[in-house]
Design a protein that fits this description.
Layout lengths: L7 E5 H18 L2 E2 L9 H9 L5 E3 L2 H9 L4 E7 L5 H11 L2 E6 L2 H6 L6 E5 L14 H11 L5 E6 L11 H24 L6 E4 L2 H6 L8 E2 L9 H5 L10 E9 L6 E4 L3 H4 L14 E3 L2 E9 L4 E4 L3 H4 L8 E6 L2 H4 L5 E6 L6 E7 L5
Parallel strand pairs: 1-16, 2-9, 3-4, 4-5, 5-6, 6-7, 7-8, 8-9
Antiparallel strand pairs: 1-10, 10-11, 10-15, 11-14, 12-13, 12-15, 13-14, 16-17
Helix pairs in contact: 3-4
The structure holds pyridoxal-5'-phosphate (PLP).
């Protein structure tokens, strides 16, 4: 039992430190710089831990995150989200006010022109297979946008950037390794095409956690931007990217209703604590989370503040989950769960030795 009012977000610091060390070692071994995505943790203390382990800077997904980290002294940030003209002035204000190098990502020719004179560093965002945002590297349009950026009229062209989010659709490390190799070869091939066309490409930035966990070789790539690895989650366990013991955040909840003879009980963590991410339906029956230490128990449904945890039979619950009992829930998607809380309760140690050592703020602003 933790002396913490629930629902609460727990950060298991021993696990997180191990994850950060492991990814830093992997990047070194693969010969690439690391620019972890801070969207997962939105926390200055966790960002510092990543920098202490050699990260060259951070990636962020909103200008609010950019501002929080820049004001906290992080001086090299990439906003890896498609830039549009209406956000250029805000990005410039952050860079000017803090002195941080702010790198933005663009996949649109009109926006590339609008960035002229901004002084910002700019990546060309490339679609390497996720088919979400980014230029098609085989298209004439991709060359046009790159050529516009390469004129460097009052901006700095950093290079090309992609995100292999399709690595989440895999079922094993072997499959994720194939996605990672596809991402690498598309990006290295595109960089060559640009160089042949006279466009200098300094940096080639890739990354997702499943791809980074599985990739064998990153020749031609200069940096990687995994984010989720710092905490992992139930999805990552189910697609074979990590073990349950690697999951670094949980939602601490309390049993608030358990009727005699019922094969389910209710906790005070629902969609507002766990999100409604359905998890990886391609590898497991749908559930909204699982119970740490009791993997057979999953969160069957969530409503706004209720989570319903179901067992196969009343006997399977074995009298363990009376009202008032605390349970730790492993969320389906840590990146969506974290911003539902204002702070982390930072836990040191495991088992009976686990204790709350600190509280860290989640910069959850929009
Ligand atoms: C552009 C971009 N880069 C990097 C990442 C990090 O991916 P992951 O959280 O799988 O490590 C994301 C995650 O959504 C992203 O959108």
């Amino acid at each position: 039992m933790y002396d913490v009012e629930t629902p609460a977000l727990l950060l298991h610091l021993d696990v997180v430190e191990r994850n950060v060390e492991h990814m830093a070692a992997r990047a070194r071994q693969l010969g690439v710089a690391l620019r972890p995505h801070a969207k997962t943790h939105k926390c200055v203390e966790v960002g510092r831990l990543q920098l202490d382990h050699g990260a060259r800077g951070l990636t962020v997904s909103t200008l609010v995150e950019a501002e929080v980290f820049a004001r906290a002294g992080f001086n090299d940030l990439t906003w890896a989200f498609p830039m549009d003209p209406s956000h250029i002035a805000h990005a410039c204000r952050i860079a000017e006010a803090t002195g941080a190098t702010l790198r933005v990502a663009v996949d649109d020719e009109h926006t590339a022109r609008a960035l002229v004179g901004s002084g910002l560093h700019v990546w060309l965002k490339v679609d390497s297979g996720l088919h979400r945002a980014g230029v098609d590297p085989a298209s004439p349009y991709a060359l046009n946008v790159a050529a516009e950026l390469a004129k460097e009229r009052g901006l700095v062209f950093d290079g090309i950037l992609t995100h292999s989010g399709h690595a989440y659709r895999t079922t094993s490390k072997a499959e994720a390794a194939q996605v990672a190799e596809q991402e690498r070869s598309v990006m290295v091939g595109f960089a060559e095409r640009l160089r042949d066309a006279g466009v200098p490409v300094q940096e080639v930035s890739v990354g997702s956690t499943p791809a980074m966990a599985a990739v064998q070789d990153l020749a031609g790539v200069t940096e990687a931007r995994p984010g989720n690895y710092v905490f992992y989650d139930r999805t990552m366990v189910l697609i074979g990217c990590c073990e349950t013991a690697d999951v670094g955040v949980t939602v601490l909840a309390t049993v608030v209703s358990h009727q005699p003879g019922a094969s389910h009980f209710v906790v005070n963590a629902g969609a507002l604590e766990l999100s409604k991410d359905p998890g990886p339906a391609h590898v497991a029956p749908q559930a909204m989370g699982s119970v740490r230490g009791a993997p057979e128990l999953t969160v069957a449904t969530v409503s706004q503040e209720h989570g319903v945890i179901r067992a196969e039979s009343p006997a399977a619950l074995d009298g363990r989950f009376g009202v008032g009992t605390q349970v730790e829930i492993i969320p389906n998607h840590s990146c969506l769960t974290v911003p539902l809380f204002d702070e982390y309760h930072v836990i040191r140690g495991t088992g009976d030795g686990a204790r709350v050592a600190d509280r860290w703020k989640v910069a959850r602003g929009r």
